[in-house]
Amino acid sequence: MFKTKKWSRIMILVAVLIVSMTFTGCGSQEEAVDAGSQTENGQEASGGNGYPTRNIELAVPFSAGGGTDLAARVVAPFLADELGVNVLVENREGAGTQIGITHLLRSGDGDEGYSVLFATQPHASNTIIGQGAEYAIDDIHWLNFHHIDPVAVNVAEDAPWDDLAELIDYIAENPGEVSIGVAQMGGGHIFMEYLIDKLGIEPIMVPYDGGGDVRTAFLGGHVDVAFTNVAPSAQLIDQSKSLGVGWNERSSIWPDAPSFDEIFDDEEIIETAMGLASCRGIAVTTTFKETHPDRYEILLTAYEAAFNHEDHIQEMVDNGQMPISQWIGPEEANRIAESTHRTLSQFEHLY
């Protein structure tokens, strides 16, 4: 009887100790998990130590072969070297760049810094003003406009016109005869719509998804005029002549082509053309900038270093992009983007 009672007391004591150790162990494990979560969350909140940890998509909202696509593919390997991961160019063309911009803003990867956009103004504003896109201009944050590329007008070498004014006069006298290829909702497209409205002319407007498609159509004889931008139009030097560039001075790419300042006396036409120059560069979501400031700084620093890399600069020289290239940084880029948006808002009736 005594032994039974003693054994019972021992068993109770052992049970109490086991329960106590179990609770203590659980408490220790729970604290360890919480501490780990806090460390992980702390890293994430600060922008993510080690970013990037996987490949980054560089989305281009145009078809392959255009000026924006070319610029993205030239800088991508240098950006990859700076970041230590692959930077994969993906063409997400359509709807005047709305498909690509929507992808950036809605994919989820954009807000984490794993999808960025090599895009353009005025296209971004055009999708909002003219197409009713369900995003705002300040949802997009530009890291830089490393190309500021004026509009350019190209025709066949044996075309009867020597500058844009002569072409406009011909269109006025022969409505519905001259076909003009444009990148949908690009600067050339908006500028021609502006001239149609201002001067009452009637060309045949043929919109394409990107500048590469415009040049292909032009070289194939499907349109009479290619209205694109200066840098990519360099690919047409041996097969065409330029009727003018939309700036207040001549371009080194087309030194024989008159500037719009030489062609037109109307200051409004000149200023409108200059305001519709294609500004190309990398954009991120504003949410990414605000929620991951450390990641944002890593990406911005890498982009600037990639842009200024001597081999990247040499490639821009070799492919004719250097005359329109510069590093202006996010503050100036976003100022230009907002200014362009205000300018385009004045022509909302043209959309």
UniProtKB/TrEMBL annotation:
Pfam families listed in its UniProt record: TctC
UniProt-listed InterPro entries: BUG, Bug_dom1
Signal peptide interval: 1-25
Ranges that cross the membrane: none
CDD domains tied to this protein: PBP2_Bug_TTT (cd07012)
Keywords, alphabetical: Receptor, Signal
Keyword Isomerase: no
Cross-referenced SUPFAM superfamilies: Periplasmic binding protein-like II
Keyword Signal: yes
Recorded family membership: Belongs to the UPF0065 (bug) family.
Name of the protein in its database record: Tripartite-type tricarboxylate transporter, receptor component TctC
Organism: Tindallia californiensis
